[in-house]
């Protein structure tokens, strides 16, 4: 039995991970789980999965769950706040930690888990975007595996398995194109929140859905791929593939291309990461090539979706520039979701922040500097609108 903690258990990835656990026939056991403020969902999880520990970011919600556990003779221990999340991330009993918190908040507990020598099933993009060098160095230091959960990075991971990284020529990241694929700038001026949340293929949370609509999601994945696979940005190519069947590809020095294909179902990469190095029995629909009929590939429109271009730029500059990119994006997406800015302003705000804070890039890459600069960028975005 493999024992795990899930950071962000009530979100899209966390919920699908619970389904993987249910179908694992006792081979996976939930020991710890965290959420922000979803009391009802967490109580349901306690009743069904009986975790030993839960952590709630919201202190009042933690107290409500603790009261419930005491009244109903549940043996679950309840923690609260950031300290509680960090405790769940570094539990002695746990073998692997799935980090599916959305945003910068996932960085600190991931570092704590690595230092506690827990393997990481990584579904939090921002961790490697803002602190890729730091995280990968810590993983090497503590002998920890970073197992990607994103479908694209899982595909690359699987396509590289058994081969020498020295023979890698190029990574080809596929993108669905999001809900606005094929549209031009003038068609996106009056986009509503509801339109941007309608992803054509994947079931994702609100923030990630907006990132997919701007193509920032793919930009963040480019920076992740750079760190996960030691690949230069010049050798990472993004290709729009609307069918979402080819999850990503690897080109080798001899010109051979290996791809990983499958149904667009996040439970597949989750299952692969949690059970690595084994493959388990089918958990989702299999791919039927008679039904697929055709696979198409397009060049991304970087003029309309310039967030992707900004991510490449930030990654190449390096240092703390990806922290600036990510912080500005998180703040801008939140403002768009709250209807305070327009859709196209998201990329404009990111570009402005990359210019305003460019002198901060020369600082050393430490956890403290990353957290401090992220806060400054977000405060600037909020105050300047």
TrEMBL record:
<dbReference type="Pfam" id="PF02670">
    <property type="entry name" value="DXP_reductoisom"/>
</dbReference>
<dbReference type="InterPro" id="IPR036169">
    <property type="entry name" value="DXPR_C_sf"/>
</dbReference>
<keyword id="KW-0521">NADP</keyword>
<feature type="domain" description="1-deoxy-D-xylulose 5-phosphate reductoisomerase N-terminal">
    <location>
        <begin position="4"/>
        <end position="132"/>
    </location>
</feature>
<feature type="binding site">
    <location>
        <position position="152"/>
    </location>
    <ligand>
        <name>Mn(2+)</name>
    </ligand>
</feature>
<feature type="domain" description="DXP reductoisomerase C-terminal">
    <location>
        <begin position="261"/>
        <end position="379"/>
    </location>
</feature>
<protein>
    <recommendedName>
        <fullName>1-deoxy-D-xylulose 5-phosphate reductoisomerase</fullName>
        <ecNumber>1.1.1.267</ecNumber>
    </recommendedName>
</protein>
<feature type="binding site">
    <location>
        <position position="212"/>
    </location>
    <ligand>
        <name>1-deoxy-D-xylulose 5-phosphate</name>
    </ligand>
</feature>
<keyword id="KW-0414">Isoprene biosynthesis</keyword>
<feature type="binding site">
    <location>
        <position position="221"/>
    </location>
    <ligand>
        <name>1-deoxy-D-xylulose 5-phosphate</name>
    </ligand>
</feature>
<dbReference type="InterPro" id="IPR026877">
    <property type="entry name" value="DXPR_C"/>
</dbReference>
<dbReference type="InterPro" id="IPR036291">
    <property type="entry name" value="NAD(P)-bd_dom_sf"/>
</dbReference>
<keyword id="KW-0560">Oxidoreductase</keyword>
<comment type="function">
    <text>Catalyzes the NADPH-dependent rearrangement and reduction of 1-deoxy-D-xylulose-5-phosphate (DXP) to 2-C-methyl-D-erythritol 4-phosphate (MEP).</text>
</comment>
<feature type="binding site">
    <location>
        <position position="205"/>
    </location>
    <ligand>
        <name>NADPH</name>
    </ligand>
</feature>
<feature type="binding site">
    <location>
        <position position="125"/>
    </location>
    <ligand>
        <name>1-deoxy-D-xylulose 5-phosphate</name>
    </ligand>
</feature>
<dbReference type="InterPro" id="IPR003821">
    <property type="entry name" value="DXP_reductoisomerase"/>
</dbReference>
<feature type="binding site">
    <location>
        <position position="126"/>
    </location>
    <ligand>
        <name>NADPH</name>
    </ligand>
</feature>
<dbReference type="InterPro" id="IPR013644">
    <property type="entry name" value="DXP_reductoisomerase_C"/>
</dbReference>
<feature type="binding site">
    <location>
        <position position="218"/>
    </location>
    <ligand>
        <name>1-deoxy-D-xylulose 5-phosphate</name>
    </ligand>
</feature>
<feature type="binding site">
    <location>
        <position position="151"/>
    </location>
    <ligand>
        <name>1-deoxy-D-xylulose 5-phosphate</name>
    </ligand>
</feature>
<feature type="binding site">
    <location>
        <position position="11"/>
    </location>
    <ligand>
        <name>NADPH</name>
    </ligand>
</feature>
<keyword id="KW-0479">Metal-binding</keyword>
<dbReference type="GO" id="GO:0030604">
    <property type="term" value="F:1-deoxy-D-xylulose-5-phosphate reductoisomerase activity"/>
</dbReference>
<feature type="binding site">
    <location>
        <position position="124"/>
    </location>
    <ligand>
        <name>NADPH</name>
    </ligand>
</feature>
<feature type="binding site">
    <location>
        <position position="221"/>
    </location>
    <ligand>
        <name>Mn(2+)</name>
    </ligand>
</feature>
<feature type="binding site">
    <location>
        <position position="150"/>
    </location>
    <ligand>
        <name>Mn(2+)</name>
    </ligand>
</feature>
<feature type="binding site">
    <location>
        <position position="217"/>
    </location>
    <ligand>
        <name>1-deoxy-D-xylulose 5-phosphate</name>
    </ligand>
</feature>
<feature type="domain" description="1-deoxy-D-xylulose 5-phosphate reductoisomerase C-terminal">
    <location>
        <begin position="146"/>
        <end position="229"/>
    </location>
</feature>
<feature type="binding site">
    <location>
        <position position="12"/>
    </location>
    <ligand>
        <name>NADPH</name>
    </ligand>
</feature>
<comment type="pathway">
    <text>Isoprenoid biosynthesis; isopentenyl diphosphate biosynthesis via DXP pathway; isopentenyl diphosphate from 1-deoxy-D-xylulose 5-phosphate: step 1/6.</text>
</comment>
<dbReference type="Pfam" id="PF13288">
    <property type="entry name" value="DXPR_C"/>
</dbReference>
<feature type="binding site">
    <location>
        <position position="199"/>
    </location>
    <ligand>
        <name>1-deoxy-D-xylulose 5-phosphate</name>
    </ligand>
</feature>
<keyword id="KW-0464">Manganese</keyword>
<feature type="binding site">
    <location>
        <position position="176"/>
    </location>
    <ligand>
        <name>1-deoxy-D-xylulose 5-phosphate</name>
    </ligand>
</feature>
<feature type="binding site">
    <location>
        <position position="152"/>
    </location>
    <ligand>
        <name>1-deoxy-D-xylulose 5-phosphate</name>
    </ligand>
</feature>
<comment type="similarity">
    <text>Belongs to the DXR family.</text>
</comment>
<dbReference type="Pfam" id="PF08436">
    <property type="entry name" value="DXP_redisom_C"/>
</dbReference>
<feature type="binding site">
    <location>
        <position position="13"/>
    </location>
    <ligand>
        <name>NADPH</name>
    </ligand>
</feature>
<feature type="binding site">
    <location>
        <position position="10"/>
    </location>
    <ligand>
        <name>NADPH</name>
    </ligand>
</feature>
<dbReference type="InterPro" id="IPR013512">
    <property type="entry name" value="DXP_reductoisomerase_N"/>
</dbReference>
<keyword id="KW-0460">Magnesium</keyword>
